[in-house]
Please model this.
Amino acid sequence: MNPHRVRFRTIRDRSFKATVILVALLSMLPLVLILFYIVKSGSSSLNWHFLIEIPKAVGEKGGGIANAIVGSALLVVIAGVTSIPLAIAAGGYVSEHKESQLAALLSLHDLEAINPAPAVTFKGSITAGGSLTDGNTETKATNASANFEAGSERHRFTIGLKYNYGETEGEITARNATGSFKYDFFLTKKLFSYAQSLFERDDMQDLTLRSTLGLGLGYQILDSKRASLFAETGVSYFNEDYAESKDEQYTAARWSVGLGYEVVPERVKFFHLHEGYYSLEESGAYYVRSEQGFRLPLVRNFFANFQVDYSYNSEPAPGKEKFDVVYIFGLAYEYEF
Model:
């Protein structure tokens, strides 16, 4: 084959892929900005009254979405009452009368062969830990986290939640929460585009809400039972709302690396995840967070979890430290199906 023709086709193929990636990212940007605006503007109104009250009249402040919740619940109940018995009856009939003409009409084998369901895998973990002392010193500490991942050949959706609380002699010494959400679309077997968001609150740092929304590209370097490794880079909108200090917001370059490795197969697992944001508008402003540790198997899917969480903010609220370190010892449960 003519080498010049091969080179031309290769350049054309890569140019087309680059165009598709750019168009995909640009098409996702308005949705990400809308989601960010909704979360930023509405987060301060989320409380118990918002869930149990009905909407106020037009022009009045307050109110809630109780009628929407009740209406959605009624729709689910009505749909379930009308469809579940019919589905069970149809399934039972097909199972008991496989050779009948009606069973042949109800069979889904032909449909499954034409349009098979995508292979979706689910995995994640739940971790909890805490401590309590009494006597000369009264302290209590609790921490909990959960991670969930759903993935198929082209799609991967990840959710992470975390909460820490500490108290000494009746005085709160730690109270923070984190939520992260990320969607990956695999353009090739290894290369993927992503949309991510991060939400953090830390009362000890005077931080009401730290939120980020971003787009970028990632590469899945390893993905096996023993080892997984990915790297990401992109652009994010970074926002910090403080209770008393001046709020901050800027466009930031984002990077992230995640590693999971069984140091001793099926015995000792090491994990590490970190991400950073560097301001593209203010020289020297950056924020980095990471979590790393080991997991040791106990019984079945239960593990002993030893973890260190570290965060560094180059420009914290006045009077606050730039870094925080949390040492976590707890029990973890992992699942995969």
Remarks:
- The first strand starts at residue 121 and ends at 133.
- The CA atoms of residues 17 and 80 lie 44 Å apart.
- The mean pLDDT is 85.
